[in-house]
């Protein structure tokens, strides 16, 4: 059951940042979390392009920074364990016709004596361009492929062991009226505990202490265990009206991935 916290504060204007997302291969779900008793999962791939696409599938270790960016881990800890060490998956290379689907099956095996905790690796889907020569080759010939990769998408694969939990918080909320076309809210999501966070940030009009009309939303906001706080920006689709001075900012953790946090903070817009 989710717990709800409501805090109060008055803040002023400052700057923020944006996040861009690329498309080309549709993957469902966009993340996999295997709780203690779960050992298998499946990913559905859809080629939404107009040509046959080939993808190589492999694991990489990545790290989340406090600005929300995901970067490659420069060096692996030889004594650490990662999700990739406990996972088998198939197939490892796929060819998908336009409009067609492919299923990737994942199986996890936790080693005996694995310490309680959350283990993360990123499963990478890297497109390998097929040249015109490959399209014209006979069926019994090996296709020619280009060395230069195209699309590359990585999704988190998380394995959990033991009774894990985290407490979320909202801090340092500001509003930047100069950001984008209509302004944006910026804040820090804090995390304390043994598991990552994943959910949505929503901005509502304050209706006598309750959430009124929603004015903005950002889905799929994660805070991994590599960090204890993350900066997030939520841009407004419409400008703030002159009489809109009080808002409720909410972080709602996704119950689908074991989330229990529902945090609200009231924000008063300085004039």
**Count of helical segments?**
1
As for the number of domains, it is 2
CATH superfamily of the largest domain: Immunoglobulins
Tell me what the CATH architecture of the largest domain is: Sandwich
Unreliable segments of 5+ consecutive residues: 3-23, 137-141
Average pLDDT metric:
86
Let me know the largest β-sheet. Answer: 6 strands, mixed
Q: Give me the Rg, rounded.
A: 22 Å
Helix content bin: under 10%
Give the total of beta strands: 20
For the record, give the distance between the C-alpha atoms at the N and C termini, rounded to a whole number: 38 Å
Task: Walk me through this protein's architecture.
The longest helix has 5 residues, at 132-136. This protein has one helix spanning 132-136; strands at 3-7, 10-11, 25-28, 32-34, 40-47, 53-60, 62-64, 70-72, 87-90, 93-96, 101-108, 117-127, 152-161, 166-176, 184-193, 197-207, 210-223, 229-235, 246-253, 261-269. Mean pLDDT is 86; it is low at 3-23 and 137-141. Strands 1, 2, 16, 17, 19 and 20 form a six-stranded mixed β-sheet that branches. Strands 4-13-12-6-10 form a five-stranded mixed β-sheet, with no helix packed on it. By secondary structure, it is mainly beta. The chain folds into two domains: 3-20 and 163-269, Immunoglobulins (Immunoglobulin-like, Sandwich), CATH 2.60.40.10; 25-161, Immunoglobulin-like. A hairpin with a 2-residue loop joins strand 16 (197-207) and strand 17.
């Amino acid at each position: 059951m989710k717990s709800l916290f409501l805090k109060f504060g008055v803040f002023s204007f400052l700057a923020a940042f944006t996040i861009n997302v690329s498309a080309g291969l549709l993957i469902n779900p966009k993340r996999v979390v295997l709780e203690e008793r779960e050992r298998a999962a499946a990913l559905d791939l859809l080629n939404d392009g107009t040509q046959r696409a080939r993808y190589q599938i492999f694991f990489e270790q990545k790290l989340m920074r406090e600005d929300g960016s995901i970067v490659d881990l420069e060096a692996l800890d030889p004594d650490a364990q990662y999700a990739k060490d406990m996972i088998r998956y198939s197939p490892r290379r796929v060819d998908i016709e336009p409009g067609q689907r492919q299923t990737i099956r994942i199986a996890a095996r936790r080693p005996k004596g694995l310490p309680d905790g959350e283990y993360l690796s990123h499963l990478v889907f890297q497109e390998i361009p097929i040249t015109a020569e490959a399209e014209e080759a006979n069926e019994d010939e090996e296709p020619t492929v280009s060395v230069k990769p195209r699309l590359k998408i990585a999704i988190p694969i998380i394995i959990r062991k033991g009774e894990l939990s985290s407490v979320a918080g909202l801090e340092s909320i500001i509003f930047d009226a100069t950001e984008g076309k209509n302004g944006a809210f910026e804040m820090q999501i804090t995390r304390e505990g043994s598991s990552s966070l994943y959910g949505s940030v929503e901005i509502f009009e304050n209706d006598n202490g309750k959430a009124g009309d929603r004015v903005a939303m950002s889905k799929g906001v994660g805070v991994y265990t590599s960090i204890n706080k993350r900066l997030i920006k939520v841009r407004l689709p419409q400008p703030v009206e002159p009489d809109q001075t009080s808002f409720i900012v909410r972080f709602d953790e996704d119950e689908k991935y074991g989330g229990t946090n529902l945090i609200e903070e009231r924000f008063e817009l300085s004039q």
